[in-house]
Write a structure and sequence with these properties.
CATH topology of the largest domain: Rossmann fold
Order of helices and strands: EHEEHEHEHEHEEEEHEHEHEHEHEHHH
CATH architecture of the largest domain: 3-Layer(aba) Sandwich
Number of domains: 2
Strand order of the largest sheet: 3-2-1-4-5-6-7
CATH class of the largest domain: Alpha Beta
């Protein structure tokens, strides 16, 4: 099989599928991306594309997003044409269409089969848009921007032979007309690597050490921002610290923005929240770790007594399932797609996203009485192993789907 993986930041969600296909010497695997991958994927040839222009000055603001994607699509198509001239004719193209790279690839390879990774389709109700009134409400302009933002994905539906999405909730955001051609397969959690370990020690930047069993609250995101509930967690911490004077909170995440907007006044959302809560927090017991290496992240989860996970109704983070796999007690927002995975009192605890007082109560109680939640922690890992394990569940299903689509 000849397979092409297309992702702006390869490998992204295709790390394990591309690697697994490349392990078979009968396959030829190529990846098309804009950035040089942070680490090598053995057996995968990397082809990069480079946009040759920026967006048009003075263009209608609704059109900026789509023009950006057209520019990327044009550059990706040019790189694909070079691959074709070199003799590469893929049987299947597996592509994340979020940034527009897919737009013209079927014109380069009309005989190839296209499998699209469909992460999210924007909706005016029931999803992230308008969910948090603190950061903007509903408006005609906002809805219009969503329509244009979806235009890129609508072109993908027209060209794809099949789609795949990580959760049933994320599938529910897609137009009903494509549901019959979309499979639900989660990306996969390496539960052999992410697993509890009783003698783990996590060393803080100042030299202090924390071990499994210590009173540790963790919160993890790529970047600290409202989309992932950073503001709610921070507002809950003063009461948590008052109730649990020995608790230490470890916060992982950068100061950039992955989703949504930057603060209106500039700076980072961390700056905004620290200013709002000035004088209300014991900052000696809150450690902002920034972005940390993956092995260190595993150690952090292993020493966590309670892990807080919040999200707008949006795509599900790997970190939530990884924390469950590490047997953290996960206290999470009762939002989609979280509620597809967590059943409160069974394999985690659910809290209304906006209820700061309830967050404080539940976090403090869980920190104080870890023995009461032992069965929930055990069940959380068991569920992830049974439903979302990379090697035994998700990767075999992904590879089976790729082979099926390639043979269509």
């Amino acid at each position: 099989m000849k397979a092409l993986f297309v992702h702006q930041n390869f490998p992204g969600q295709f790390r394990y599928t591309a690697s697994a296909l490349a392990e078979d010497s009968r396959n030829q695997v190529v990846a098309l991306c804009i950035n040089q991958p942070a680490y090598a994927t053995p057996g995968v040839r990397i082809a990069r594309y480079t946009p040759t222009r920026g967006t048009t000055k003075g263009i209608h603001p609704f059109a900026v997003d789509f023009e950006t994607k057209v520019i990327r699509g044009e550059a990706a198509a040019a790189a694909a044409a070079r691959l074709r001239r070199d003799g590469f004719e893929p049987d299947i193209v597996v592509v994340h269409p979020g940034w527009g790279e897919h737009l013209f690839l079927r014109d380069v390879w009309p005989k190839a089969r296209f499998l699209l990774f469909l992460e999210f389709f924007y909706q005016p109700e029931g999803c992230d848009y308008g969910f948090d009134p603190e950061f903007g409400g509903d408006s005609l302009e906002g809805r219009a921007r969503l329509r244009v933002k979806n235009a890129n994905l609508l072109t993908g539906f027209d060209m794809m032979h099949w789609g795949v999405t990580p959760t049933h909730w994320q599938k529910s955001t897609l137009p009903g007309s494509v549901h019959s051609n979309v499979s639900v397969i989660f990306d996969g959690i390496d539960t052999g690597f992410i697993a509890p370990e009783a003698d783990t020690v996590f060393t803080l930047p100042d030299g202090r050490s924390l071990k499994a069993g210590d009173e540790v609250l963790t919160f993890v995101n790529r970047n600290l921002e409202p989309y992932r509930g950073f503001h709610v967690l921070m507002r809950a911490l003063p009461a948590v610290q008052k109730a649990r004077p020995e608790a230490v909170t470890l916060i992982v995440g950068g100061d950039e923005v992955s989703y949504g907007s930057r603060p209106a006044g500039g700076g980072s959302w961390k700056d905004v929240m620290l200013k709002e809560l000035d004088g209300k927090l014991d900052l000696s017991r809150i450690v902002f770790l920034g972005k940390i290496p993956y092995p260190s992240y595993r150690q952090l989860l292993r020493v966590s007594r309670v892990h807080a996970y919040l999200t707008y109704p949006f795509v599900l983070s790997w970190s939530m399932l990884e924390s469950m796999a590490a047997e953290c007690l996960v206290i999470a927002s009762a939002t989609g797609p979280v509620t597809e995975v967590i059943r409160t009192g069974d394999n985690g605890i659910l809290v209304d996203f906006f209820d700061v007082e309830d967050w404080s109560r539940k976090l403090a109680r869980a920190l104080a009485k870890p023995g009461e939640y032992r069965d929930i922690r055990t069940k959380s890992r068991r569920d992830v192993v049974e439903r979302y394990d990379l090697k035994s569940v998700c990767l075999p299903e992904q590879l089976k789907l790729i082979r099926r689509v390639a043979a269509m």
